[in-house]
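PROTEIN SPECIFICATION:
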Amino acid sequence: MPRKPAHLQEDTLGALRAHAFNLFGRYGYEGVSIGDIAKGAKLSKGALYWHFPGKEALYLDCLKRLHGIFNEDVFDPMRATADGATGMVLMFQGLVRLFGDPRIQQGVAGYWLIPSTPETAEIIATQRRFETESQKVIAESLRRGVAAGQFDLVDDDLDDLARAIISLIEAFVLPMRHLTPDEIRPLIGVLARTLFRAYAKGSALSRLVSQL
């Protein structure tokens, strides 16, 4: 059988990735079969296997796409600033942007439903690496804020607070299909103001909080 022209292959791959991303986001790894994805993308299983060797590889591709969205909306802006307090403000602003991002509006809770099997070992390792790197970004912003006298925290608490923030972010992510961005936005605002009132120092930070 002759190969499709390159632009048609790209269109097919894009449709496949988009459909798989949404299905895995709603139903998780075990809740979706190759047949489900192929049917939804209007492809044969053979055409799907032309692009990906199996479900694990396709799921991993989708998971990395999700991580890219998180980085784009939240963590890359934090990495780009040297000011700790500004970094934390950017984190909360990024979360508001994330929860309004049309690419994830159908829900992504399924990406936290990964069974622990030999087949999924690389998937689990990829997710853990992303969570570890995300925690480091938050902890580093807090650390810079402490060094600049912006936050009243001891160094021993920074990593634990970063992990706690990641857990709260996940708690917002999981019910996304049932909450609108307008419903999530005030919750993020309350969390942001609570953090700053608990740990922020200096009058300049009140101006930063007003941006939330």
Notes: The CA atoms of residues 86 and 207 lie 11 Å apart.
